[in-house]
Amino acid sequence: MRGKLGAVVIGLGVFGACVLATGSASSHGYISQPPSRQALCADGTVDDCGDIQYEPQSVEGPKGFPAAGPPDGAICSGGNSRFAQLDDPRGGQWPAAQLTGGQAYDFSWTFTARHATTDFEFFITNDSYDPSRPLTRAELQPQPFLTVPYGGRPPSSDTVTQQGTIPTGLTGRHLILAVWNIADTGNAFYACSDVQF
């Protein structure tokens, strides 16, 4: 009896390890520059963040944005109710990185685990954006201003920098939505960074 019980425990342990080593559990990351909302929560710049302060890398939701993906009002959390604090506009008072239209900019990702990647996409809000309300698709420009294709490869290191050009013609507060599209699952990782022009 004791031998059978031991075999069951070992079998369950192996099964659990296999589950954790596949799919979404093996892939996590977030934007660290410009600081994303989850990065600001994790480093203590912003408080009252709930679980996201411990798991900035875990904002995972359905891929296919903007046609699919998380619903309007829950885009910054990836549609994950555990991280709903990321969708709270905080009265438009999230700390914002200073940007200038037309400037070259290095976007940095931090990964706690790397995964096969389709691409990285960066969207920015349009002139209808209201920083005091949760983000909707209608407030984003319809096409990403930067797409970095990866062809199914994983990121090469735990931090990756991707250079792009900040769009011109924007003033005031805006928001950049970064989407990391995973190649071999149905999910993507989402990160919102507040910016000021």
Automatic annotation (TrEMBL):
One of its GO terms (molecular function) is monooxygenase activity. Residues 28-195 form the Chitin-binding type-4 domain. The keyword Membrane does not apply. Pfam families: LPMO_10. SUPFAM superfamilies: E set domains (SSF81296). It comes from the Bacteria. Residues 62-81 are annotated as: Disordered. Keywords: Monooxygenase, Oxidoreductase, Signal. PROSITE patterns: PROKAR_LIPOPROTEIN. This is Lytic polysaccharide monooxygenase. The lineage of its organism: Bacteria, Bacillati, Actinomycetota, Actinomycetes, Kitasatosporales.
